[in-house]
Each structure stands twice: as structure tokens, then as C-alpha cells.
Amino acid sequence: MKLSTIVVVVISALLLSCSSSVIRKISSDEGDMEYVDVCDQNGNCRKFSRLIMGTDHLVQANWTSEGQAEISEEAAFSVLDEAAGLGINLFDTSPIYVGGVEYKLGRWIKSRQEANPDRKLYALSKGGFPFDLFWSKKLAQGAHSPELKVTLKRNGVLNDEASELKNVPPGTYASRLYGNESQIKTRVTEEMGHSLRNLNDNITVYLMHRDDGDYFKFDEVKRQKTAVHTIMQALSAEQISSKFTFLGWSNWQTVRINESIKLAEQNPALTRPMLNSPYFSLFEMSKRTIHAGGVQVTHKEMMDENFQKGIKIMPYSPLGGFSIFDKPEPKWENAKKAAKLKYDQGDAYWKNVYHAIFTAENQARYERVVKFTEEFNQNHSTNYTLDQMINAYALAHKRTDFLAVGPITVEQLRRTVASLKLARMLTDSDLEYLYSGKL
Predict the structure, then answer these.
(1) Of 317, 319, 313, 320, whose CA–CA distance to 399 is shortest?
(2) DSSP β-bridge partners for residue 216
(3) Tens digit of each residue's pLDDT (9 = 90 or more) over 214-264
(4) Contact 208, 235 (CB under 8 A)
(5) I want to staple 419 with a disulfide (CB 3.0 to 4.6 A). Which of 107, 156, 174, 392 is the partner?
(6) Is the omega angle on the peptide bond into residue 318 within 30 degrees of 0, that is, cis?
């Protein structure tokens, strides 16, 4: 995918300098959005908004409250219209998000670009999801790790060599990226086909959402991972790489991300990964991640300009617009109580979130951000909210190129976009205080 011979040295240097984090702000009469230039090794460049609109909960029922109905396509379109109006041009989706939202996003992008062809709207989709065995009757065709099979048999889930499954607990997954190059190509190609149909063949960014890994009850099955080189060879095949502009990772460990960057630099035939999407928030995850295979980056790492050098970092967090602290009002005790109720009810998502987020360390950070926000507003005659401050905290770190956010209403969208201005007002000392309490 790169050029070759001696020319590579010169042109790659130029392209890498072009792909550095060039952040531009729209003039005040146009809005408050900022943009980052992204260029791959072939000179394909796009200018993406720093805030990336996540759609995973946009139409989800029972998300804000019990009995809350799934919103209509018309209502979802009005939120997406507002996002575009505020300057957001990259929309994060996936074929496994609830409510068929990837298909709805595809319909929205097509209709808006037909009406206004000069307005560029881009879709970021994801693949590489492990097979969710909770919904499966049998293991998918192809090879699976011996370690996974042993775990399933030991727990009475896999009952014979015919790959039949029974009584699969939530959080049990079989990797889609396990195996040889041919198998990975077949599985990713099939999976990508759903997104291509939903998005009318327009995928600008394609992330492998989770690295190679198997899980039982949300815990990773210990085994050796498929070599990064093997996965990259599969994804660089014409049948896959020709279907998107930029490749990236989501929830991959730093050591494997750095290896992928080095491999692409050394081998012109490999597609260079351009984005990485880890979890990052003022509220760090405990050893129990919010979902199986979740990978986070830390405050110290994100303050280091050389951290994961050579790739754009697009963090996600649970506070990107609709916050766990919005229900029933922004108080730690209320949020923890609501999460505990979900946990006691056996909700698969909140069973992880409760233990991942509601720690003593995060409670201390919450209390600091409440006090800090109050004092900041008094000193600057502003009225920023807690979720704006927490989003600004993530945005203000040196290695945050983008932030994936998840507002589900127009008001939340506007509030989230306003956090960009707040981020420019925070100092390194502010970030250190919010994280560690050190002045």
C-alpha cells in the first residue's frame, strides 16, 4: 500500500508530517468545531471533526429510563442533522449497534449528501468483532482456539465435537481474528459486507473493534494471540482494503499497536493503521473493563507526546454527551445506585460497568471535578456542566486527536461541542489535579 524503493524514504517522511495532528478551528462565525487532517501513506487525506458522533445508543430503547421507547428514524435524523450543523462530519457506527442504526445512518448520509453534495459526511464502521456465542447455536465455521474449546467443554457449554452449544453465559465470545490469513480474510469480508450494504458502500474509516481474543463470562481465555503481521496481511488484501480509506484499531494493547505501525513502515504491501480508539476518561476502568476486551489508556500516557507515535488516537468514554450522571441527576450516589440496580437485575452491560467505574478512586475524582467545576465557573463567569468538564479533560490531553462522543439529544450535542472551547482553557496542572489531586 506504500510506495517502494528509495522514494519511500522521502515521500513517507512528507506524508507522515502531513498526517501529524494538525488541529484547525472554524472561525467564530461558523461555529466552534475543530478539525484534524489525516493522510495515509498513499496521500489520501481527509479533514475530520475532532468530535466524532457515536451512534451506538442513538436509537436504543430503555437507555435513559425504563420503558423508554426506541426513537423514530425521523427523530434520529434530526439529531444527526444537528451534529452536521455543528460541524461534525465523521459518524461512528457498527453493524452490531442496536436498532439497526448503521442502516439508518447510511440512509441519512445518502439523503443529506444528495441534497447538499458539497457537504462531506463520512462513516466510521467497525469489524473484527468476536462471535457472541450467547446468541449462537454452534461455533462458527472455521478454526477456533483449543483453549476456548477446553473452556467451553469444562463449563458444559460445548457438548460434543459437532460444535453444538448450550446454556452459553453472557460475555462468551470466539475471536474472529484467530487463525491463518485466509480464515481472517473470509470472516472479515463476510462481516464487512453487512456494513457496506448498510452504508451504501461508503466506509471511510474501518476499525478492527477488539484484537484477537476469546472470552468466557467477560474474562479473557488465556492463550497466545494471532500474530499482528498475519492480521495485517489479511486486512491488506484487495478484497478488504479497497473498501475503505483508512484502517484503524479499537481496544488494542499499545505493544501491538506499536508493532503494527512498525510493520507498515517496513512493508509497503501492508495497509498502514491510521487511528486507534481506546477507552479514556477521568474515570479510569478498574481491572474489570466495561466490556469484554476493553483496553484503556491512562492520563500519564496521554500526556506524553510520543505515546503511540505514528497513529491518531480517538478515545471513547461513557461520558460523551449522555452521561451516567444524568440519571436521575448528576450525583455520584444516584449514579452508583442506578448502576447497582442494573447489576442486581443481571444486566450484562451494567454488570461490567458497575465494577469498572464505581471505585473509590473514581469517587475521589468525581468529588474533585465537582469542586473544580464550581470554582472554574466562578472564576471565569461561566456555567459549564460536569460532563462538559469531563469531556474537556479528555480533549485537553496532548495525545487526544479525536474524541468519540455519544449524545442522543440536540441539547446534549450542543453541550458536548461547547466542551471544545473549555478544553482550550484547561492547563496541564488542571488535568493533573483532576486526575491525581496533586496541585
Answers:
(1) 313
(2) 219
(3) 999 999 999 999 999 999 999 999 999 999 999 999 999 999 999 999 999
(4) yes
(5) 392
(6) no
